[in-house]
């Protein structure tokens, strides 16, 4: 402790201001930048000298007194008094510097603090500020000058409150204390009311974990006590033990960030769920004084959570059951439908049918396709609902895709005498990266609707390059923003109905008109467009027509990559290396023969079997390089076959490709390891199929440019040119006879051979032939048939 007066007396120096005057700013800057330092310094002295027993236990209260001292000091350093020295006539109660001391003196007096206690503590404040001088970069003379200034500052404060205190009579002091006591009691009562009326049970425990006080709800819920507060305020301890609380407190770790836990506790109303949290109580000297534990009853929330969990489980089970049901039904419905549609086509070719029979067969066929469409849409919807629908983008020739679509839909438009216009922006990129199948699905649905709901006029598919196009994709490819719009001059949709058209199974407008449809098309289209990162929009006016549009950001790809990736079937003619053996196992003749002819054409040695048992025997006898197997089969299914094969040492690493029409099989395959190497869905996507064969057999494909293609790129430029004109030369009907006949018996091998023949016949048939080839790859027999009919009619 340093006291200037005594040190001066000791050194025998006179009480005068040091001769050298230094600017006061450096001292001000030092004080202003060391608030925290000063706070810990005074705390250090207060703890060391045991002042904390009498002062506030809140650390922030100490900060407030440091600020309260520094503020007048900083003001005085900026605008110093006429003299820092003291004189006998001075009224320190009027001194600006002493104002803080007077205020503090009053506050401390009402808390019952005595003058000696306050004055001695003030000595330590003074010391803390003097200590701070050691941190400044001052010369010894400068430091001495600042020491003197600080002493005079604190002298004034002390003189100020001593003068104020001594002017205060004992009676006044007593009155002050009584007022303060009343306000403290009121404050206490306020917090007590809150404490007692809390819905949470609150427990206070001391350092030894003894219960010292609990609130009303805690007493009611966990004890038979009445008036626990009375005991506490009467100074009596609660002789109460709650085993769960003792256990909880023993394991309570205050350093854990989230100390809340949930417990199922015994109460006077039976067992209930509680969320428990605790906080240690510390005083300013960081001395631990006990705990407060708060328990909130969360039984209702827990019950609701359990109910919700159960409901979710049941909904998931129901959803799973629905998926299984849909998958099974679609598989079961498709099979007889293929028969119905196939035989209808065969019957329609009979030469001696009456017009009435032709008409009736047409109706059967239309109903069949309608049903097939419905099944596909329901399946798509269930995939969307269970987040199973994924996009498979790849390089696509955009103008060809759009032209192809228009060509397919053209016959329908012609039937109704509607003009179908394809309006392509010449700035569109030729090659883009997109899921061709899904983009076609959306546009096909919009075009079909437009034609369906239009009696006269036009339907336009326009694709515009948007002005804010040409962004750079993170992978450095160029991104084009394009807007695809389908506009019609049809019946339109009322404002009230427009809200509903994207909902499943909603058909709006004049429902008595019996338009064909399921009400699912727009729901699925909207979801697909969302998957593509966009939104399907509509604008419509009743009686005037409708407009549906969506914008896509598509990466541009070089046209060279398109012919290789999206049309490998055109180019693959075999593979490199030794001849490979493939075993095809499928109980359905049509699926088996399709795969056999496809693979034999590529020079594979193909064995086949109609079920797993037969497949196993064939595998043992012929040791194939690859097994392609269906999953649902009689006698032994694909799962058991694979298990049996994997149990034999020679087939441990045999590549197995599973193939199935069933949606749920795909899900199972994705979730678990059934021993297959790859899975592919039906109908088979040929590029995907070839990619998987290549991967499993480690082969390279032998490819050849199709005979019609011109290495100089003439074909590409021809495609681009025709993209904006849509002019095809159609072959005469006699050249299409071969395809028609092959179509009747579903012989796709011959269809492809015939298409090749057409391409060679005349290069102007190229676009028509390419369209047929694309449709052939999708086994879209009806669309092939429509296209041929179109050629026949145009002839
Ligand atoms: P649907 O299979 O019935 O066509 P969609 O989901 O594709 O199912 O369409 C839902 C409904 O929206 C249709 O039934 C029709 O009422 C209305 N709608 C769709 N497109 C058009 C359009 N271009 N013009 C008029 N109404 C339309």
UniProtKB/TrEMBL annotation:
EC number per UniProt: 2.7.13.3
Record bears the keyword Oxidoreductase: no
Pfam family of the protein (one): HisKA
Domain Response regulatory: 581-697
Keywords, comma-separated and alphabetical: Kinase, Phosphoprotein, Transferase, Two-component regulatory system
SMART domains: HATPase_c, HisKA, REC
Domain Histidine kinase: 328-556
Span of domain PAC: 257-310
CDD domains: HATPase_EvgS-ArcB-TorS-like, HisKA, REC_hyHK_CKI1_RcsC-like
Keyword Transit peptide included in the entry's annotation: no
Reactions catalysed according to its record: ATP + protein L-histidine = ADP + protein N-phospho-L-histidine
Modified residues (4-aspartylphosphate): 630
Highest taxon of the lineage: Bacteria
Classification via NCBIfam families: sensory_box (TIGR00229)
Name assigned to this protein: histidine kinase
Species of origin: Spirulina subsalsa FACHB-351
